[in-house]
Amino acid sequence: DVKVTQSSRYLVKRTGEKVFLECVQDMDHENMFWYRQDPGLGLRLIYFSYDVKMKEKGDIPEGYSVSREKKERFSLILESASTNQTSMYLCASSFRRSNTEAFFGQGTRLTVV
Amino acid sequence: GEDVEQSLFLSVREGDSSVINCTYTDSSSTYLYWYKQEPGAGLQLLTYIFSNMDMKQDQRLTVLLNKKDKHLSLRIADTQTGDSAIYFCAESIPGNNRKLIWGLGTSLAVNP
Questions:
Q1: Quick one: pLDDT at residue A2?
Q2: For B93-112, what is each residue's pLDDT tens digit?
Q3: CB hemisphere CA count around A85 (13 angstroms)
Q4: Nearest to A99 among B31, B42, B104 (CB)
Q5: CB-based contact B92 A50, cutoff 8 Å
Q6: Nearest to B65 by CA among B49, B42, B85, B88
Q7: In a mutagenesis test of the B interface, which of A43, A44, A51, A98 is the best target, namely the one with the most B β-carbons within 10 Å?
Q8: In angstroms, how far apart are the furthest CA atoms of chain B?
Q9: Chain B contact for A92 (CB, 8 A cutoff)
Q10: Do residues A107 and A9 make contact, with C-beta atoms less than 8 angstroms apart?
Q11: What's the N-to-C CA distance of chain A in angstroms?
């Protein structure tokens, strides 16, 4: 079974802290994605990566950065957490071929206080 | 631009059929997907349909695609309480295979 694992299910951080959300996949997928999910707004793409050390901005990259040093790991970084970044964060991965079935992690519920 | 729309809520009785609808704007979509998200969990792929197909059936699930109207539907037969979840429609676009365009999700409530 494909497994996408996010390092934390729940996280509480203080405003201004630097926050790292980690995601690991075990299927040798080229593509990896970070989304945030908010009620009424659906899934919004923050960043994605299609190869090691490659990244592209999604629809809402402001306030975030990413790192992909190894193929299996994709990290989302909140440089200085703010309360409006309280959300559910979902990591996903997929092969690069055109049938882009995405496999998701279980999500990290981040609360910034 | 690219857009996928779904109704936000659907309520059905256990044992009835559920039909969740989705419309999309990009006629060049290659694949269209249905994902399911159970409470507190990530999304999982339910089924997908290639854009040159009209229908796909998989056990209790039937996907219908009307390319002319850019309309996609998911029918769940004999809906059970375990089907209560959020259902997302998504499309992939040629030349943009790295990401999917998502609808906001339809929250399905199944009442006993």
A1: 66
A2: 776 656 788 999 999 999 98
A3: 28
A4: B31
A5: no
A6: B49
A7: A43
A8: 45
A9: yes
A10: yes
A11: 36
**CB pair distance less than 8 Å for A31 and B103:** no
CA distance A69 to chain B (A): 19
CA-nearest residue to A109 within chain B is B40
Distance between CA atoms of residues A26 and A108, nearest Å: 18
Residue A81, classified by CB atoms within 10 Å of its CB into exposed (0-12), middle (13-18) or buried (19+), is: buried
Mean pLDDT to the nearest integer, A77-98:
92
Q: Which residue has the tokens 């206080």?
A: A113
Q: Is A22 or B51 the better-scoring residue by pLDDT?
A: A22
pLDDT in the model for residue A100: 66
- Give the distance from residue B84's alpha carbon to the nearest chain A alpha carbon, in angstroms: 17
B35-58 per-position pLDDT tens digit: 999 988 889 999 999 888 899 999
> Which among B30, B45, B48, B99 is the top mutation candidate for probing chain A, defined by the most A β-carbons within 10 Å of its own β-carbon?
B99
A27-79: per-residue pLDDT in tens? 999 999 999 999 888 899 999 998 998 999 999 999 999 999 999 999 999 99
Q: pLDDT band for position A97 (50/70/90)?
A: low
